[in-house]
From TrEMBL:
Signal peptide: none annotated. Coiled coil: none annotated. NCBIfam families: ygfB_yecA. This is YecA family protein. It comes from Pseudomonas fluorescens.
């Protein structure tokens, strides 16, 4: 986990109100010029063709300045820079954060979630850079929403593996970013179908490591097979959460633990 982004988490801070909700009910019962651009396209879930076709930024004469894949490359460099606030989200965590915002039934104003993502105002070179970064964030959020609404399995910008050092893994960072998005509108996530939302959030909560000190999560963290079992369910859980929050009439089945 990048230390600059998650110092608060490493200090042992936990969101008790959410944790207490998720530890109730049936939650536990059912338990990266072209090469770089292509890499970031894949990281955002874009195919090579989509990276070319996605809307470009235009200059005042209407000529395209850069492709969406190139915009994402620039965004990643900006978000991963050490100059940002220690609690600002890096690129992978920001992807998780935007995914949660795209799922939440309550729309969060753009200004609010952008400010929260950075924790404090970044030192932009000028207004042009500010506009470019914020425009790309908005475009990425819109793309994520389209992915969630599609019939294809959602692709994360990282491997579904915490590795030997979970705190340093991209997946942990993505999951923490997602939970940051949940915390931004916590009440909205649980106002309806609380037990089902709690159940579907479990794989992401486990991946985040934010709740490992809770007894029930501690038990899961000690079981490597169960951890792996839950982690691989994240894409499925995201689709189920999207349907439940955005299309409640198409109520998804509760995720079941996979057995080896």
């Amino acid at each position: 986990m990048p230390a600059k982004a998650y110092s608060w988490a490493m200090q042992g801070l936990r969101p008790p109100s959410l944790a207490s909700q998720l530890l109730q009910g049936s939650a536990f019962s059912t338990l990266q010029e072209q090469c770089a651009g292509e890499q970031i396209s894949r990281a955002a879930g874009l195919t090579a063709q989509e990276g070319l076709e996605f809307p470009h930024l235009f200059n005042s004469q209407g000529s395209p300045l850069m492709s969406f894949a190139e915009q994402l490359t620039r965004l990643q460099v900006f978000l991963d820079a050490d100059e940002l606030h220690d609690e600002a989200l890096d690129y992978v965590a920001a992807h998780g954060y935007l995914t949660a915002l795209s799922i939440c039934s309550e729309s969060v104003p753009d200004r609010e979630w952008i400010d929260a993502l950075f924790a404090e105002e970044p030192h932009y070179a000028d207004d042009t850079e500010r506009e470019a970064i914020e425009t790309t964030l908005l475009a990425l959020k819109a793309h994520i929403a389209r992915q969630l609404a599609s019939d294809e399995e959602f692709e994360l910008p990282c491997d579904l593996d915490l590795g030997e050092e979970p705190d340093d893994s991209d997946l942990r960072g993505w999951c923490i970013g997602f939970m940051e998005g949940v915390f931004l509108r916590e009440a909205a996530w649980f106002e309806t179908a609380e037990d089902e939302v709690s159940e579907m959030l479990l794989p992401i909560m486990v991946g985040s490591g934010l709740f490992d000190e809770q007894p029930e999560f501690e038990d899961i963290a000690k079981d490597a097979n169960l951890m792996d079992d839950m982690i691989v369910q994240i894409p499925e859980a995201l689709t189920a959460l999207y349907l439940l929050c955005q299309a409640p009439d198409e109520k998804p089945a509760i995720l079941k633990p996979r057995h080896h």
